Amino acid sequence: MANVKCNPDLVRERAKCSFDVNELIHLIDGGENATKEKRHFEETIFSVKELQDAVPEEYLSHKDRYENAVRKATILRDVCREYMKKYNYKPNRFRVGHGVFKDVSPFLLHDGMFVATIIGQGTPEQQAEWLPKAENMQIIGTYAQTELGHGSFIRGLETRATYDPKTEEFILNNATLSSFKWWPGGLGSTVNHCIVVAQLFINGKSYGIQPFIVQIRDLNTHKPLPGVKVGEIGPKMGFQTANNGFLGFENFRIPRMNMLMKNAQVLKDGTFVKGMNEKLTYGTMVMVRVGIVGDCSLNTSLAATIAVRYSAVRHQSKIKAKEPEVQILDYVTQQHKLFIAIASSHVFRNVYSWLSKSYLNVMKDLAQGKQDHLPELHATACCLKAVCSRDAGSVVEECRLACGGHGYMTSSNLPLVYGFTIATVTYEGEQTVLLLQTARYLVKAWLAALQGKVLAPSVSYLSDWLKNDNVRWQNTPEGIVKGFQHVAAGKVKAAYDTIQKYIKLGKDYEDAWNLASVQLMKASEAHSRSILCEVSWGEVIRTSASPNLLQVLKQLAQLYLVYWTLETSGDFLVYSNISKDDIAILREKYEELLAAIRPNAVGLVDAFDLRDEILHSTLGSYDGRVYERLMEEALKSPLNQESVNASFHKYLKPLMEKAKL
Ligand SMILES: CCCCCCCCCCC/C=C/C(=O)SCCNC(=O)CCNC(=O)[C@H](O)C(C)(C)COP(=O)(O)OP(=O)(O)OC[C@H]1O[C@@H](n2cnc3c(N)ncnc32)[C@H](O)[C@@H]1OP(=O)(O)O
Ligand SMILES: Cc1cc2nc3c(=O)[nH]c(=O)nc-3n(C[C@H](O)[C@H](O)[C@H](O)COP(=O)(O)OP(=O)(O)OC[C@H]3O[C@@H](n4cnc5c(N)ncnc54)[C@H](O)[C@@H]3O)c2cc1C
User: Fold this and answer.
1) For the residues 32-51, what does the mean pLDDT come to?
2) Tens of pLDDT along 178-199?
3) CATH of domain 140-275
4) CA of 182 to the centre of ligand 2 (A)
5) pLDDT tens-place string over residues 565-589
6) Would you tell me which CATH number, out of the four given (1.20.140.10, 1.10.10.10, 1.10.357.140, 1.10.3210.10), belongs to the domain 284-450+475-605?
7) Ligand 2 atom nearest to CA at 181
């Protein structure tokens, strides 16, 4: 990239950088070697001509766009397979996926959930049967859980799997319209198999929801099998090439062994054998929620790179009347919009790495029959997924707005990035629903704290606060982290007290819960923020890096802490011992941090190391040829391939001539 002829503003910005950009790239990647491998892999992918689109996708019809995405998905799969064989390297397909598809691969659910569910929910025999076929794409699958009528409340799913002991089969049925599966990615026209989550019935008795592996299309003709009704759900706000679909069954029979039986089992005679914990059936969702926190980091870095580079190139208006127009990055309001995006990406990455470790530890425990830490993992993954995805959506939109009119151009890629980022707020558990799951855990933890019990590490601050809620405020990063814990503890207490108040007024627990649920949701958000602050600050101070880089990483981590303290200063005034003067000091600190980060802004986004092919942006490319690229892309419009469009003769001319009469 270094030899590319760049916009002079970007050249100046890069020269100003106080730290070694390569050092940060290696730190993010996990070492110099990892960067080399990543770059070699990406170089290989992006030099495949067939993966490059001659015409921007947006000009294609819905159908052509889908077919083009499938074409590229298959080529990408082949290239990755060869690459893995040759170099024994497991590539990050999601990162290059943004480059290849701009939007989303029709195989996303195959990789993200179908294969993962076979691993997580299948017995060793079932894994031996389906995993090799799924991994080498002999079968292509998705995860079909959500229905027209139910997504959040999965116990309410209506798809039925009724066991027939005579034939040792399950009979799948969708008797109502609301029971039709709706949303699964790739289901529309791509997959031939799915994990179907359905209500199990044996001898007329319900045994809750269970996962089944089901072939829905003929492997040769791709025609839906008899008894299967399947199709695509149509255009959406984003995820245009994900090929989301609908599905219903009519008396469709599958063998008994197609119920994934790692947890619960159905024996030949129809005996139901309960698993260790029925919630383990929800395991794939927990895994993906953890993964989404990592996705939030990537999505935020995409938007930050585009908006920061553009803001360094774009000049508009003046700060001082007698001086030239300034780079818009020099406006402190612009820095306020953008630097939180850079900081958030680092916070999400650090928290993802922390959460992944907890996830793997709990998986190891579960393999040994221990489930003590499962509730804490579930509660933590729920609230972090909810808050990180919503933050990422807001940050991406702020970056888009920070690019003014050009941010509204599809060629900036910001609308597409926003489309797939904002989807994460809803899928894999809608944000409010997940925050309320965590609130259940917090309320239980609060009760345990009141009873003097020892709490799990992520909530132990509740007991600390109960012992001493009068800690003096300190304007240090550690003091701010404590402050967030005080806010969270204060909110959990307030929500709990509200439930008790309603119960005393004669309400039953469920109604009291619903009445207190705005507070419960806010308590859960505050709990997430305290984890995000504590974990990210902790990770940064433990980072081993050169003094120059460490200084910049600390500035970013502090910016995150101060930004969110100021954003929620009302809560701090209510629930911590912060004073108005402390808030004024923090405001000053915030301005100092913006000024300190400013010279490194371009270096920081360069360190996300996102190739132009991944950014897909006229505004964010490494060389900063913004106006040239905007014009080049505009000229690709089919309307610019003819000097006069037929509509002139057909409609405009007759209109003008009618007006003369
Ligand atoms: C790694 C790479 C990843 C890359 C990314 C890949 C990208 C993939 C793209 C994905 C596209 C989208 C896919 C989808 O959206 S798939 C569908 C996802 N659907 C959902 O997430 C549904 C959300 N709803 C639920 O999860 C549940 O219904 C809900 C948890 C909200 C409630 O369940 P339920 O009603 O059964 O439970 P209760 O509320 O009554 O709670 C009972 C107790 O169970 C505990 N619980 C609940 N869930 C879990 C769990 N998963 N693990 C452990 N424990 C759980 C809950 O806390 C309760 O405990 P207590 O009674 O002790 O309070
Ligand atoms: C882009 C995209 C891709 C998807 N891919 C898949 C897929 O591959 N496979 C799949 O199975 N599903 C998929 N889904 C479905 C997704 O998982 C669900 O849409 C999601 O879980 C939310 O459920 P819902 O649509 O039923 O929302 P609802 O639950 O109907 O939410 C509507 C509103 O009701 C509120 N609400 C609901 N319950 C409660 C409650 N208990 N307390 C308070 N408020 C509540 C919510 O907060 C929300 O404001 C996808 C969705 C999207 C958008």
Assistant:
1) 97
2) 999 999 999 999 999 999 999 9
3) 2.40.110.10
4) 11
5) 999 999 999 999 999 999 999 999 9
6) 1.20.140.10
7) 11
Q: Which of 111, 85, 113 lies closest to 96, judged by CA?
A: 111
The residue nearest atom 4 of ligand 1, judged by CA position, is: 291
Phi and psi torsions of 156, nearest 5° = -90, 5
The structure's pTM equals 0.97
Boundaries of every domain in the chain: 140-275, 284-450+475-605
CA distance 1 to 606: 10
378: CA distance to ligand 1 center in Å?
8
Choose the residue to mutate in 94, 154, 241, 363 for probing ligand 1, maximizing ligand atoms within 8 Å of C-beta.
154
Could you tell me the two tokens for 349? 């990455």
405 CA to centre of own chain: 26
Residue 582 near residue 475, CB atoms below 8 Å: yes
Ligand 2 atom closest to Cα of residue 151: 26
> Is the ipTM here above 0.85?
yes
Can you tell me the distance from the alpha carbon of 335 to that of 337, in angstroms, rounded to the nearest whole number?
A: 5
Annotated binding-site residue? 146: yes
Go through the chain and tell me how many residues it has: 661
What is the predicted pLDDT for the residue at 470? Answer: 74
- Is residue 420 within 6 Å of ligand 2 at its C-beta? no
Of 105, 100, 107, nearest in space to 614 by CA: 100
Three-class SS of residue 108? helix
Judge whether 334 and 441 are in contact, CB under 8 Å: no
The 3-state DSSP composition of the chain as helix, strand, coil percent (nearest 5) reads: 60, 10, 30
Catalytic residues: 428
